[in-house]
Amino acid sequence: MLKVEDINVFYGAIHALKNASFEVRQGEIVSLIGANGAGKTTIMHTLSGLLKAESGSIRLENKEIVGTSAEKIVGLGLVQVPEGRRIFGRMTVLENLMMGAYLRRDKNEITESIEKMYQRFPRLKERSKQLAGTMSGGEQQMLAIARALMAKPKLLLMDEPSMGLAPILVDEIFYIIEDINAQGMTVLLVEQNANKALSIADRAYVLETGNIVMTGSGEELLNDDRVRQAYLG
């Protein structure tokens, strides 16, 4: 579904991604793990069209998307749940969901999608008229996921979905990710909680200072001594 080959990304003179290559296959959960500053969010922003790769190839369903605008990439089915949630705090829950569907023109289907989100996330239905910025962190994360799903993605990018959440809420968010995947959604997950990220991943990659240095199944990396020492405490 997604094939990334030898992408290089720079912030001025800083070489943030160095010939990074990886792939995500249909129906998988693929996790990217690494320390702060390893380049995980840079990868997400490059895939989403918010940053431009200086060289290399990013193919979504065999279509080259390097140089494609962020809006068109959403239209092609690649949608991101951003780090820090980035919900629209001064808009209601319902208005946030409608923003997720801004490229869609199928009004009846949009209404159906909203109802599906309310079934999946009952707390959002209870708070549909509430300003999103007044909700708890866990509720805001659910809203960020639901807003992304409103765009009808083929591939869902999730950037640090457990950041800042209490442990019980972290468990809930990872359950939601697994449930979304079980219903057919392909997921690329960037997450500092390496233990959780690897435990639900079909496959995973380890990123260090802009280089992908290891790959394997989630289980293989969970049991790898180098990964355990560096990321699993």
Q: How many independent structural domains?
A: 2
Low-confidence stretches: none
Distance between the termini: 33 Å
- CATH hierarchy: architecture of the largest domain: 3-Layer(aba) Sandwich
Count of individual beta strands: 10
Q: Count the helices. How many?
A: 10
CATH C-level of the largest domain: Alpha Beta
Task: Give a verbal description of the structure.
This protein is α/β, with parallel strands linked by helices and 233 residues long. The protein folds into two domains: 1-77 and 157-233, Rossmann fold (3-Layer(aba) Sandwich); 88-152, no CATH class. The chain contains ten helices and ten strands. It has helices at residues 40-47, 70-76, 93-100, 107-120, 122-126, 137-149, 167-182, 194-200, 218-222, 225-231; strands spanning 2-11, 14-24, 29-33, 55-60, 63-64, 78-81, 155-159, 186-190, 203-208, 211-217. The strands form two sheets. Strands 6-7-8-3-9-10 form a six-stranded mixed beta sheet, with helices on both faces. A four-stranded antiparallel beta sheet has the order 2-1-4-5, with helices on one face. Strand 1 and strand 2 (14-24) form a beta hairpin. The radius of gyration is 17 Å and the shape is globular. The mean pLDDT is 92.
